[in-house]
Design brief:
By secondary structure, the protein is mostly beta strands. It has one domain: Immunoglobulin-like (Sandwich). Helix content is about 0%, strand content about 50%. The chain has no helices and 9 strands. The chain is globular.
Length: about 110
């Protein structure tokens, strides 16, 4: 359960590849609960490039300031012409009656950069 005003770290696992993309090739498209979409090309943190033998990863950290549904897209390409690599879709609540807030989201399928 994700709670308002708690930082959330989204981690994507990148499949092994002999020709990985640079961290600057990845972008975030962020749609908060009010659907006022935002775009950022500088929010990727903790990038570990994959190799031909080992998976890599990258992270995006944000703090939701509104209750509701959030969509976070990992993309590549120019802001007017981009490719969606993966999407995270989740709900943020005002409070949790019984559990601590979740602070991490982990992709369950390796992503192969294109």
């Amino acid at each position: 359960m994700y709670i308002i005003n708690f930082a959330i770290t989204i981690t994507w696992v990148l499949a092994p590849t002999a020709s990985p993309l640079l961290a600057t090739a990845f972008d975030i498209r962020f749609f908060p609960a009010d659907l006022a979409g935002t775009y950022t090309d500088a929010a990727i943190v903790n990038y570990v490039a994959p190799t031909a033998e080992f998976a890599g990863s990258l992270q995006y950290v944000f703090t939701p300031t509104e209750v509701g549904r959030y969509k976070i897209f990992l993309t590549t390409g120019a802001s007017t012409s981009y490719t969606i690599i993966d999407k995270k879709d989740f709900w943020v609540f005002a409070a949790s009656p019984t559990t601590q807030p979740v602070t991490e989201v982990l992709g369950n399928n390796p992503i192969i950069p294109v």
